[in-house]
Design a protein that fits this description.
With 57 residues, the chain is mainly beta. It has no helices and six strands. It has one domain. A hairpin with a 2-residue loop joins strand 2 and strand 3. The mean pLDDT is 77.
């Protein structure tokens, strides 16, 4: 499972977007952090997209 957060700061002339994410797994009812290198912000056709919750099955 990947959970993410985004911080967006907007002024009159600029916008700043940052995010953090972590991939975790549950093994024997214990949660373990596996990775912190997931991409959750995408720039496509002049759009900034934030995908903040991904379940990996």
């Amino acid at each position: 499972m990947t959970l993410s957060n985004a911080t967006i700061i907007q002024t009159r002339d600029d916008s700043f977007i940052s995010s953090g994410s972590a991939t975790s797994i549950t093994l024997n009812n214990q949660l373990y952090r596996v990775d912190e290198q997931n991409q959750v912000i995408y720039y496509i056709n002049n759009l900034v997209l934030f995908w903040g919750l991904i379940f990996l099955l």
